[in-house]
TrEMBL record:
Protein's organism: Ornithinimicrobium humiphilum
Protein name, per record: MFS transporter
Transmembrane parts of this sequence: 20-39, 51-69, 143-162, 213-234, 240-261, 273-291, 328-352, 358-378
Organism superkingdom: Bacteria
Signal sequence bounds: none
SUPFAM superfamilies noted in UniProt: MFS general substrate transporter
InterPro entries, per the entry: MFS, MFS_DHA3_Transporter, MFS_trans_sf
Transmembrane helix in keyword set: yes
Membrane recorded as keyword: yes
Gene Ontology MF terms: transmembrane transporter activity
Length: 383
């Protein structure tokens, strides 16, 4: 999506001030909170392929709304639609992938496939963000936007091409082949509530799942510091042109990290905790020394690669740890806890900037988060 890298500038170009943009982001966050877990329960009672297709339609509508109604109201509506689309996909995609692999007896390859898919997404994002600059020079924000809408249509076509997989059920004495499974019962409010209770129950009551969720949440809080990389580098005196190249390098480093996520998911105890601690300390060092030379850029990129790898590995651990039949709901609970972790990071940085420079604050927050991230990583079971 080329628009991802410049949509805040698009809003400003349409006359919105910083306060209005901030309130839109708040609406985006709140709507994501409200929709996340209930939508995961949808995916445990509805056909997941159809839900992914519907999410693709809503995704296209979100950005089309921005372009056809480029005003505060239109942007807010687009953000709400974007949240709905993300909520419909969150948990659904992961559970669909696991079920598709389980249907052919290859659920053990989930970690490898998931990490490779994440890497492909990161690399595609890097290319798309880089494409925004020439597209804007040629046709302004309108061209960037409509090309982005075209990308969402490709996303929709891919969703339409997905097969329908049988659901992975807990093992039992009466196991049958995937192709012999009956069609799911008609969807009802009772079935949705049952799936919601089952997923929330497993997330809270199962010790292994709970430990993975805690580790996932704390590492997401560290990953959330990436929202401030541009500003930290700028405060350190780095030029805009150099920042663009540094951020491209950070994204490529992230791709390496996600590529190795399936291996990271197999780490446990001291090795897992040491990896997370190393990544967090590198981020702190990169932020503290931002602008002092190339080593600060390397530290940021390397640290982000490590924590991104641990983040993707967290999902792999979660899918391997779950045993109930509400897989998508539990995954959505993880996404919700991740949102909480990210909001904690935003709050800490926001409060810190009242008394110190941003680079010092980001480094300090990274050091602060290193403690819970390391401790929870130590206790998380392998995937």
């Amino acid at each position: 999506m080329p628009l991802f890298g410049v949509y805040a500038l698009f809003f400003a170009d349409r006359g919105l001030d910083a306060a209005q943009i901030t309130t839109m982001l708040a609406v985006w966050s709140v709507s994501a909170f409200v929709l996340e877990v209930p939508s995961g329960a949808w995916a445990d009672v509805l056909d997941r392929r159809r839900l992914l297709v519907a999410a693709g339609v809503v995704y296209t509508a979100a950005f089309t709304c921005w372009l056809l109604v480029p005003s505060y109201a239109g942007f807010v509506a687009g953000f709400v639609l974007w949240s709905l689309s993300d909520a419909m996909k969150s948990g659904t995609f992961e559970a669909f992938l696991y079920d598709e692999l389980a249907a052919v007896g290859r659920e053990h390859r989930y970690g490898l496939v998931r990490s490779r898919a994440e890497t492909a997404g990161v690399l595609t994002m890097a290319v798309a963000i880089a494409a925004a600059a020439p597209l804007h020079r040629i046709g302004g924000f309108e061209l960037v936007g409509w090309v982005s809408v075209g990308v969402t249509l490709v996303h929709l076509l891919v969703a339409l091409s997905l097969p329908r997989a049988a659901r992975a059920e807990p093992p039992g004495p009466d196991d049958v082949a995937a192709e012999d499974l009956p069609e799911p019962e008609p969807v009802s409010v009772q079935a949705w509530l049952s799936a919601l209770r089952s997923g929330l129950g497993e997330a809270v009551a199962a010790p292994a799942v709970r430990r993975v969720l805690l580790a996932y949440t704390t590492v997401v809080a560290v990953v959330g510091l990436d929202e401030f990389f541009n500003l930290v580098l700028a405060d350190g005196g780095t030029s805009v042109g150099v920042i663009a190249w540094v951020m491209a390098g950070v994204v490529l480093a992230e791709a390496v990290g996600t590529w190795l996520a399936d291996r990271v998911a197999r780490l446990e105890g001291r090795a897992h905790a040491g990896l997370v601690l190393t990544g967090t300390l590198l981020l702190a060092a990169g932020a503290w020394t931002a602008g002092s030379g190339p080593w600060s850029f390397v530290a940021l990129g390397a640290g982000y690669a490590v924590v991104s790898s641990a983040y993707v590995a967290g999902d792999i651990r979660l899918q391997a740890t779950m045993s109930g039949d509400a897989r998508a709901t539990v995954t959505s609970v993880a996404a919700l806890t991740a949102e909480v972790g990210f909001l904690v990071t935003l709050a800490l940085v926001g409060l810190g900037t009242l008394v110190a420079d941003l680079s010092v604050v980001v480094a300090g927050v990274a050091l602060l988060l290193a403690v819970p991230a390391t401790l929870t990583a130590w206790r998380a079971p392998p995937g």
